Amino acid sequence: MSFSVLSIIYLLGSVTFIIGLKMLSHPATARKGNLIAAGGMTLAILGTIFLYEHNGERLHNYGWIFTGLLIGGVIGVLAAKKVKMTAMPEMVSLFNGTGGACAALISAIEFRHLSENVVTTGELLTILLGLMIGAVSFAGSMIAWGKLNGRIKDFAFKGQHIVNQVVLAVMVICAVWLLWSNDGLQVHHHILFYIVLVLALLYGVLFVMPIGGADMPVVISLLNSFTGVAAACGGFLYNNQVMLTGGILVGSAGTILTILMCKAMNRSLKNVLIGSFGGAKAGVAKEQGLYKAISLSDAAVVLAYAQKVMIVPGYGLAVAQAQHACHELEKQLEEKGVSVLYAIHPVAGRMPGHMNVLLAEADVSYDKLLEMEQANAALPTTDVVLVLGANDVVNPAAKHDPDSPIYGMPILEVETAKMVIVNKRSMKPGYAGIENDLFFQPKTSMLFGDAKQVLQQLISEIKQV
Q1: pLDDT band at residue 184, thresholds of 50, 70 and 90?
Q2: Reaction(s) catalyzed by this protein (predicted)?
Q3: Rounded Cα–Cα distance for residues 136 and 98 (Å)
């Protein structure tokens, strides 16, 4: 009877995951979708704790289980409440890495447990896949976390791509050897298993270490899909339908998002998988000529008397925590009869959807957010483009400079608008470390200063226009 009830609970949990994922596709329903999926997960966890049976026995170590749940829950809640939007990408990497670590630990524990009994080839294959993918996700996510918060610098050496592929090949060969010799696990099989674990951790580090600049959203998305696949392996191992469904959803969604990110970056998925993108080319500053600055009062007049304004948010907006001031500027301009829209590049910021989350926090209407293709179609009829902390995603060098590290990357073509105002703290190059040709074009004016302070001052000036 308990098995039937547990099966129904797992089915309900799986359905809530699917519904929640669907609702996450729109900001208006994302919060509710997240709660629905979390409710389904809570139901599945409690069902497993109290109803799961194996050989007629149920779980009995409730003290350890609920202590772990309590500690993890408190840490998660406090981290989510205290994290700033600028630190959101690194928190995503950290939490994703812990998911990969859990999958790898499950494989290690089950390998020791099953090795005492008869292990089928299918079980061993599932264990090895969970181990390798989970360990790569953990190690890679930890490196990504360190790089995003500045603790780890980009590092690459000559021939690293070859080393990466050799490490990957040796790891796979060891895993295949372990599967091929599965005739009763001996001591040397255990040694081989942990060699696979070490190689997977090493590959995760080498895979992410050279990646830098605007490529970081791609690797975060890819590692997220790895964690999902590793979790799905655990679902196969335990014959747990809800764990399997959740893992498949995360893995497939992460893979699709990775492909979309690669398209937005003009990168091939093959290059992502072998770790041959990111820090391969170093940005070289070149002589561009003179740039033109604009005062706050002049910028306010230009914006107030425009008919159509396009705002391009970037990581600088997140750093300054200026999303609410940006929304206030939008409202002030609309009171003046100005049409205000936002142009969102797929890889703006440090993680997929970073700008969407940032603006949603400030209650900016989703209907005002234009995707890159829509924005580029509307830019030629735009009077003023206000670029707030974005750099590489508006750099025209991506279209006409074959020597640029971002050459071929689709960008927001803001230079086609009638006028461009760029807000930056200084003329320092962006995250990819390259100069931006846009800053030196005749139609571009630079408005220096912290994004939040500049926007607040613009609002005051516009009220007086």
Answers
A1: low
A2: NAD(+) + NADPH + H(+)(in) = NADH + NADP(+) + H(+)(out)
A3: 11
pLDDT grade for 273, boundaries at 50, 70 and 90:
low
Within 13 Å and on the Cβ side, how many CA atoms surround 136? 31
Strand ranges of the sheet holding 339-343, from the earlier edge strand across to the other edge: 369-370, 339-343, 308-313, 384-388, 420-424, 444-448
Contact of 372 with 346, CB cutoff 8 Å: yes
In total, how many domains does the chain have? 3
Element of type H or E holding 180: helix 160-180
The set of residues, in sequence order, having a beta carbon less than 8 Å from that of 299 and lying 6+ positions away, is 421, 445, 447, 458, 461
- Residue 159, Cβ density class (10 Å: 0-12 exposed, 13-18 middle, ≥19 buried): exposed
Strand partners for 54: 57
- Contact, 387 vs 345, CB < 8 A? no
Q: Which residue has the tokens 């290059």?
A: 271
pLDDT at 40: 95
Beta-carbon contacts of residue 237 (< 8 Å; ≥ 6 apart): 106, 107, 110, 123, 126, 127, 130
Distance CA 98, CA 91 (A): 11
Query: Which residues on adjacent β-strands are paired with residue 312?
Result: 387
Q: Which domain holds residue 2?
A: 1-82
CB-based contacts of 271-277 (< 8 A; 24+ apart in sequence): 272/218, 272/219, 272/222, 273/222, 274/161, 274/164, 274/165, 275/160, 275/161, 275/164, 275/206, 275/207, 275/208, 275/210, 275/211, 276/161, 277/211, 277/215, 277/218
Q: Residue 71: what are its φ and ψ, rounded to 5°?
A: -60, -50
**Residues 172, 177, 180, 186, CA torsion sign:** negative
Distance from C-alpha of 129 to C-alpha of 230, rounded to nearest angstrom: 7
Catalytically active residues, by annotation: 392
Whether residue 254 sits in one domain with residue 351? no
**Does residue 146 sit in the same domain as residue 241?**
yes
Residues 403 and 453 in one domain: yes
Calpha distance 228→136 (Å, rounded): 12
